[in-house]
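Lecture notes, unit on protein representations.

Consider one protein chain, 119 amino acids long.
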Amino acid sequence: MTTTTAPAAADIAAVLDLAHDHIETVGYCKKYLYSITQADTGLPLDKCAVDLVGAINVAVHGTPRHVGGDPLTWAAEQALADRITAPSIAAWCDYPGNGKTLALALLRDTAEALRKEAS
């Protein structure tokens, strides 16, 4: 029997911090994990603008693509999903008005809340 331990709140917060920093560095995009337009020019995927899920994947795996169902990625996505009213993070990213500023605030505020929970 295999058991998995849920990631600690502090570890999830650290992933969200890295995702925040990644979006600050490469930019934010809507409609997909990463900017297809930038990727089509030959820009490495980890240098392309990303949405929230893409940024989390880069923080955990080094690529914005879905790598697999690891507990840390899922926990980070769930932490964000718990703070939004949209049906999914992808839908939230695509809502009009939810641009880079709000995405960064969501990452930052969720990480801060997790750190408070952990202390």
